[in-house]
Backbone:
């Protein structure tokens, strides 16, 4: 177990550096001058431009910039945005909002997705099963931004249950509707994955044994069937937490949630290199840790899996 | 002996032994094969290939037929939009047509779906918008299938250090969410066309196919017929493309078909955010984005491009689902 974790962590190191380097190259070597963008329409004084470039290490070759950035990162310094605000400050304001939004969406898709998948997997071919299949197919094919408008129109404009956009991003109850929209696509995937997995495991030998032993149906379904069917679902959910935070760009924009998605979208548009790299770096760390946890969870769910 | 004489040798052949005999045939068994052809013709009915089986299964599925017809219609619409409408999608008449309501009697006419806030025919824009979506979907899928298929094949076939390096590269690209990466990449293009979107999504999207292909190759590589091919002196290229590829491609096709719908949705999302396609190009994403401003007073401006987009994505996902069910022997 210990050596497996160690090996996994060692494998994560090149991936971490590779992904951050990739995003670094995408932000800093592609065309488009961020310093010129700072001045807008006005012609910039070359001396001022040079001093700004020097301050942000933009006059160095890109590999030196990367090393410098990484050196600072390991001291907890995410650098300074072009507006002079430390990137860690910007993230400290926005990440709590997005984490709440993503966690709400995560709980929603996990609970409802598993329940729908369980019901439709146990009763294949029934009305409920067909309904779940059709509903999930519809949700998968409607793009998130269209879904967001539908939700806005129905729940805010027509029913008046909520305000169309979020007034206070720190108020959890206002985040419910954006979270439902954000999680709906993954909900459909979770439901379908669970359904397929349940359907495959229903025919397994251990199920017949459990029924023959005379175990109550509840125990069979929850303790035997569901637990064994969870592995592919957990794999999906693990990589999804990071995807939810990235996908928040669209949802946060439409519902005016002051989270990381909004900040990132603005930063990409204004070529705010340090902010973009900082936020994506954190998202990459979240993704890597989540996939490690998923691998470790496999052994909990299925004791046959051993980490040598 | 199953189906020894497949005339169409490019057709993937999943039966172990066939590839080997086919190969041996080139060494001097051609004459024997000819005499055997007649005898085996009646047997053909029972000994169908995986693909023949899948095709038989597919033809009976209503979902496959519906999605195939929809996709065919969309492709025709993308190639010959003027066959569906006389209206010019770029003609804007603000005086007469500003947000004019849909005229349901005017079937296939310019006013059928109404007019948008710039006085342009929504029906014409929905028809002409198919081209951008289909082009992006088809070309991104082709790019990621070739790129991901080749890397996955190389990683799976050679294994060892090659696999370790390629797998880490896949992990690196996999760590960047598609939408975020595409936003950053596309921001570098001063003017963005369909092709810049294809490049951005292709560069970032190949990892999924690569993983699927690698997994499939790892399994197929162990087969007896691959070993036999190697024993008979088949080279690396021949083993990869004649023996392994036809038997490993099924899951790749399924993933690619479903992903095609996803790329169309991603393009629309990028265009919606203002970092995808730009104005001379007609795109459902751009139209949905500009319809936001009038959503309260004229919801139909948003409804029709959104419906077209959803139906397109749905068609490809249904097709992928149907193909997967037909190819997956576990579900038979």
Residues:
């Amino acid at each position: 177990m210990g050596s497996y974790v160690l090996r996994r962590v060692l494998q994560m190191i090149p991936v971490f550096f590779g992904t951050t380097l990739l995003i670094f190259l995408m932000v800093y070597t592609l065309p488009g001058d961020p310093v010129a963008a700072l001045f807008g329409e006005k012609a910039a004084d070359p001396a001022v431009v040079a001093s700004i470039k020097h301050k942000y290490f933009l006059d160095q070759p890109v590999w030196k910039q990367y090393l410098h950035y990484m050196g600072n990162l390991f001291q907890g310094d995410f650098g300074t945005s072009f507006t002079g605000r430390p990137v860690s400050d910007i993230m400290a304001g926005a990440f709590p909002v997005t984490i709440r939004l993503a966690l709400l969406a995560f709980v929603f898709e996990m609970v409802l997705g598993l329940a729908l998948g369980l019901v439709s997997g146990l009763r294949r071919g029934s009305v409920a099963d067909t309904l779940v299949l059709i509903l999930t197919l519809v949700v998968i094919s409607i793009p998130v931004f269209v879904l967001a408008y539908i939700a806005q129109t129905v729940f805010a404009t027509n029913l008046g249950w909520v305000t169309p956009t979020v007034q206070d991003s720190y108020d959890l109850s206002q985040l419910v509707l954006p979270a439902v929209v954000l999680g709906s696509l993954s909900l459909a995937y979770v439901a379908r994955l669970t359904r397929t997995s349940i359907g495959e495991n229903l025919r397994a030998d251990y199920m017949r044994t459990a029924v023959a032993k005379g175990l109550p149906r509840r125990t069979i379904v929850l303790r035997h069937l569901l637990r064994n069917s969870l592995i592919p679902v957990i794999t999906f959910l693990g990589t999804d937490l990071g995807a939810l935070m990235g996908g928040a760009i669209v949802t946060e924009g439409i519902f005016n949630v002051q989270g990381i998605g909004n900040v990132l979208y603005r930063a990409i548009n204004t070529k705010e290199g340090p902010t973009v790299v900082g936020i994506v770096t954190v998202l990459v760390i979240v993704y890597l840790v989540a996939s490690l946890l998923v691998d470790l969870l496999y052994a909990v769910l299925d004791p046959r899996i051993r980490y040598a | 002996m199953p189906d020894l004489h497949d005339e169409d040798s490019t057709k993937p052949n999943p039966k172990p032994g066939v590839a080997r005999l086919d190969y041996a045939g080139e060494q001097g068994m051609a004459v024997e094969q000819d005499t055997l052809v007649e005898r085996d013709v009646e047997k053909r009915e029972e000994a169908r290939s995986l693909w023949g089986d899948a095709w038989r299964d597919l033809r009976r599925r209503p979902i496959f037929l519906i999605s195939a017809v929809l996709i065919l219609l969309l492709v025709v619409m993308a190639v010959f939009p003027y066959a569906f409408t006389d209206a010019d999608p770029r003609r804007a008449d603000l005086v007469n047509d500003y947000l004019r309501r849909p005229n349901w009697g005017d079937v296939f006419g310019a006013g059928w779906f109404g007019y948008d806030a710039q006085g342009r025919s929504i029906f014409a824009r929905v028809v002409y918008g198919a081209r951008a979506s289909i082009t992006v979907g088809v070309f991104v899928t082709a790019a990621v299938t070739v790129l991901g298929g080749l890397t996955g094949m190389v990683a799976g076939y050679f294994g060892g250090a090659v696999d370790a390096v390629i797998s880490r590269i896949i992990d690196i690209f996999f760590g960047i969410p598609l939408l975020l990466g595409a936003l950053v990449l596309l921001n570098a293009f001063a003017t963005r066309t369909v092709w810049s979107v294809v490049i951005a999504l292709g560069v970032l999207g190949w990892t999924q196919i690569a993983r699927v292909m690698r997994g499939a190759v790892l399994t197929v590589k162990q087969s007896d017929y691959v070993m036999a091919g190697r024993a008979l002196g088949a080279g690396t290229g021949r083993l990869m493309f004649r023996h392994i590829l036809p038997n490993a491609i099924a899951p790749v096709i399924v993933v690619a078909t479903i992903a095609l719908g996803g790329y169309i949705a991603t393009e629309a999302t990028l265009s919606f955010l203002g970092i995808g396609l730009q104005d001379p190009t007609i795109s459902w994403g751009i139209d949905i984005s500009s319809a936001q401003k009038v959503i309260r007073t004229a919801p139909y401006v948003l409804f029709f491009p959104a419906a077209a987009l959803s139906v397109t994505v749905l068609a490809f996902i249904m097709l992928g689902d149907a193909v997967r069910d037909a190819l997956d022997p576990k579900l038979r």
Observations:
- The interface with chain A takes residues 168-169, 171-173, 175-177, 179-181, 183-185, 187-188, 190, 261, 265, 268-269, 272-273, 275, 288, 292, 295-296, 299, 302, 306, 309-311, 313-314, 317-318, 330 of chain B (CB under 8 Å).
